[in-house]
Specification:
This protein has a domain of 53 residues. It has 77 residues and is α+β, with helices and mostly antiparallel strands. The chain is built from three helices and three strands.
Length: 77
Protein backbone atom coordinates (compact mmCIF):
# COMPACT_ATOMS: atom_id res chain seq x y z
CA UNK A 1 0.00 0.00 0.00
CA UNK A 2 2.86 2.39 0.76
CA UNK A 3 4.39 1.85 -2.67
CA UNK A 4 1.01 2.64 -4.26
CA UNK A 5 0.90 5.97 -2.40
CA UNK A 6 4.46 6.79 -3.43
CA UNK A 7 3.72 5.95 -7.07
CA UNK A 8 0.56 8.05 -7.00
CA UNK A 9 2.44 10.98 -5.46
CA UNK A 10 5.15 10.73 -8.10
CA UNK A 11 2.57 10.67 -10.88
CA UNK A 12 0.77 13.70 -9.50
CA UNK A 13 3.96 15.71 -9.13
CA UNK A 14 5.12 14.77 -12.64
CA UNK A 15 1.89 15.96 -14.29
CA UNK A 16 2.54 19.71 -13.97
CA UNK A 17 6.00 19.19 -15.45
CA UNK A 18 4.51 17.40 -18.45
CA UNK A 19 1.89 20.10 -18.86
CA UNK A 20 4.50 22.90 -18.95
CA UNK A 21 6.73 21.01 -21.37
CA UNK A 22 4.63 22.45 -24.20
CA UNK A 23 4.91 26.07 -22.99
CA UNK A 24 6.32 28.88 -25.07
CA UNK A 25 10.07 29.47 -25.41
CA UNK A 26 11.94 32.11 -23.42
CA UNK A 27 10.88 35.72 -24.03
CA UNK A 28 12.75 37.55 -26.77
CA UNK A 29 15.30 40.15 -25.75
CA UNK A 30 18.35 42.08 -26.83
CA UNK A 31 21.93 40.81 -26.89
CA UNK A 32 22.35 42.11 -23.31
CA UNK A 33 19.19 40.47 -21.91
CA UNK A 34 20.00 38.04 -19.12
CA UNK A 35 17.97 34.87 -18.60
CA UNK A 36 17.89 33.59 -15.02
CA UNK A 37 17.58 29.82 -14.73
CA UNK A 38 18.10 27.18 -12.07
CA UNK A 39 21.21 25.08 -12.52
CA UNK A 40 21.96 21.69 -11.04
CA UNK A 41 25.19 21.33 -9.11
CA UNK A 42 26.10 17.85 -7.95
CA UNK A 43 25.90 17.57 -4.18
CA UNK A 44 23.76 20.68 -3.66
CA UNK A 45 20.30 20.42 -2.15
CA UNK A 46 19.35 23.94 -3.25
CA UNK A 47 19.54 24.61 -6.97
CA UNK A 48 21.32 27.93 -7.49
CA UNK A 49 20.05 30.45 -10.03
CA UNK A 50 22.39 31.98 -12.61
CA UNK A 51 21.57 34.95 -14.86
CA UNK A 52 23.45 34.98 -18.15
CA UNK A 53 22.87 36.18 -21.71
CA UNK A 54 21.83 33.74 -24.42
CA UNK A 55 25.42 33.67 -25.70
CA UNK A 56 26.78 32.87 -22.23
CA UNK A 57 24.24 30.05 -21.81
CA UNK A 58 25.18 28.74 -25.27
CA UNK A 59 28.86 28.67 -24.25
CA UNK A 60 27.79 26.32 -21.45
CA UNK A 61 25.89 24.12 -23.92
CA UNK A 62 22.43 25.28 -22.85
CA UNK A 63 19.62 26.08 -25.29
CA UNK A 64 17.65 28.78 -23.45
CA UNK A 65 14.44 28.19 -25.43
CA UNK A 66 14.54 24.46 -24.76
CA UNK A 67 15.32 24.70 -21.04
CA UNK A 68 13.25 27.78 -20.18
CA UNK A 69 9.98 25.94 -19.47
CA UNK A 70 11.63 23.74 -16.83
CA UNK A 71 14.39 25.90 -15.39
CA UNK A 72 13.49 29.53 -16.19
CA UNK A 73 13.04 31.95 -13.31
CA UNK A 74 13.07 35.51 -14.71
CA UNK A 75 14.40 37.81 -17.45
CA UNK A 76 16.51 40.88 -16.70
CA UNK A 77 16.94 43.70 -19.14
Amino acid sequence: MTSLRINLALCLTAFPTLATAQSEPAPAGTAGTRYCMRIELTGNIVEPVRCWTRDQWAEQGVDVDKEWTREGVRVIG
